């Protein structure tokens, strides 16, 4: 039940961000609905600064190379653990799958992960991944 609350809270924040960009998104309403992806990473209090530095300074830069569109990011506490939550937007599922494969195969990213793990230990525990498909009755449908 607490996990459902976290997911709903993240989606509420994401919707608020979408509403803030109404003029830019109005033209997109005539296209196919975007696909959103919710990622939840368990991170560890003893090295979360190293996690945030790696994500901010390296992962985001490399993700941008593969056309990742990060909509928003949060940190939360849930069931006694610290989590990093972020929302991505993709034009379709095929692009999502293709770009994740390219990112995960990126040699620079592999080297950075290896180096930071050697310096700081494991930075990420459990990872949850959700592909979100907007419903035709969703208030955010017009913004997709």
TrEMBL record:
Residues 1-26 form the signal peptide. Residues 37-139 form the NIPSNAP domain. Pfam families: NIPSNAP. Keywords: Signal. InterPro entries: Dimeric_a/b-barrel, NIPSNAP. This is NIPSNAP domain-containing protein.
